[in-house]
């Protein structure tokens, strides 16, 4: 498992470096978040030991159990999936990063649950594809909410997060990523000082190279890391 995982991780890192270079950046400009939702604690530990210290989970329960089982290590946990109001209390304190800031209500609710003086880095999730099943702010609703979001002192908003449409393959994914970057560029002009939009969290196993070409600074990669591994996809 160790060897296979190392090979997979190397391959992903190489692809990140190539895409970063093609977009005039270096590999270190892009943060790889290993999405461990498909695998058990043992595999997650191995990934950490191989040097991937940014780990993402989309289900709160999995984040709780892995974070407890890996309390001897210090991974940075990224919450990348929808967080229901009744799960914030246990989840928010464990996080280094909240990607799925998908409603004003959630962003406000996190206030009661964040125990530290330093604000929690968070992203505004945008529903770029307009898919009704997806979470996130509709693009047009972000600008009007910026002042309210900026007033949330328990959060440090650092950018936008988005997912490509399920349909349309890689071409559509690239268009979605470009749209998210353009939205970010537009919002920057009207952004209060408290908010930074430098980070773009976009791109998954099948399209993270395209996301990087379009300006991603964080990619969330799961299945491709675990190919050929028991309990992986
Ligand atoms: C599962 C998931 C990923 C990773 O997807 P893969 O295609 O397995 O790389 C990325 N982002 C979110 C929000 C996810 O739920």
From TrEMBL:
**PTM-bearing positions, type N6-(pyridoxal phosphate)lysine:** 37
Q: Domain of life here?
A: Bacteria
Q: Name one Pfam family in it.
A: Ala_racemase_N
Give one GO molecular function term. Answer: pyridoxal phosphate binding
**Residue ranges of every copy of the Alanine racemase N-terminal domain listed in the record:** 29-226
Q: What keywords are annotated for this sequence in UniProt?
A: Pyridoxal phosphate
Please name the Gene3D superfamilies in this protein's record.
Alanine racemase
Listed cofactors = pyridoxal 5'-phosphate
Q: Which PANTHER family match?
A: PROLINE SYNTHETASE CO-TRANSCRIBED BACTERIAL HOMOLOG PROTEIN, PYRIDOXAL PHOSPHATE HOMEOSTASIS PROTEIN
The Swiss-Prot or TrEMBL record describes its family as follows:
Belongs to the pyridoxal phosphate-binding protein YggS/PROSC family.
Q: Any idea what job this protein has?
A: Pyridoxal 5'-phosphate (PLP)-binding protein, which is involved in PLP homeostasis.
Q: What is this protein called?
A: Pyridoxal phosphate homeostasis protein
